[in-house]
Amino acid sequence: MREQFLCLADFRTEAFSAVFRSQRNPSPTSSRMPLFRLQLIVTNSWQTKSSEEVKDFRAFVRCRQKLDERYQAAAMEANGSCVAGKGASLLTDPAQLIKEVETFLFDVDGVIWRGGKLIEGVPETLDMLRAMGKKLFFVTNNSTKSRRMLQEKFRSLGLDIREEEVFSSAFAAAGYLKSIGFPTEKKVYIVGEEGIQQELAQAGFQYLGGPEDGGKKVLLGTGKNVDFDRDVGAVVVGFDHYINYYKMVYATLCIRENPGCLFIATNCDSVAHIIGQQEWPAGGTMVGSVRASTARTPIVVGKPATFMMDYLANKFNISKSKMCMVGDRLDTDILFGQAGGCKTLLVLSGVTDLKTLNSPENTTYPDFYTNQLPDLLAAKKTMAA
Ligand SMILES: [Mg+2]
Known about the structure:
By secondary structure, the chain is α/β, with parallel strands linked by helices.
């Protein structure tokens, strides 16, 4: 049972409460929540709940499963054309979607750019949405860049995006530590890159590791212990193309031997288009290595955990029901949007193709799917007519 809840973290106890609130008052909207997502919402700490609460939850899951089945059947009956996408519909009326949404959250790689190249039509699409008064935010699991570095990347591609409109999982890691009052006299060990360093520094935390440990080696031989800092109170693991055995040893020792040391994962993405068309191992592979050596479940702060969404909803006072998450991955972007109660739009310009969406193994369906973000430009004509 515990294995089903691996991506979850203690800070999500609020989401756990939300499940019970939904149980008392299930609405047609919440009944669209896939069972898998419900499982994701429950925190690791649910096992510490009373047996009565656990029993309630299991009853709720059974009830929700029936609602889901009814919803899916009704949707299929009402719209035979969506059979190809099962629970997802092709976006045929972008104007209507835009009308219903106040805030758009965009994943970046595979949505705004791909392999570092801007997708044609994206600047015009963002301009159109801004002219319509929509708030725009960019939410990425890329932890190699800080918000400032991402802003520079946007600018280098001719997109004028403000720093506060960008959320990276490196920012989420620092934000999470801040949110739990992580003591500033403690240190953070980084298996990751400069983005995490910059965000931790900006949040006032001391850190070590990162690219600086990229060339270090462990000496193998009798009695060759690795010295590690006993003041490390958290290890943050993200994508790290300087990963080496020294870092794995250091992170393992801190987590296993420093009492109370936290294990934080910026994200668990298995693969990504790191520089081009090929899919290469992503942050989840580094997380998996430390997870194996420590037998600990990390606290995940990137998508699909809703830390970044909760942060911006609170900071900018935005209603999640008026948000739409646009992304190219089902297991991060679409689950993230669904976990937060947003509308979701899958674009087929990145990792997920139509074959994957329609595959019998797939259990995650966005509200809509379309080829690429600039398809929203069609709304201009509809609205002008
Ligand atoms: Mg992406």
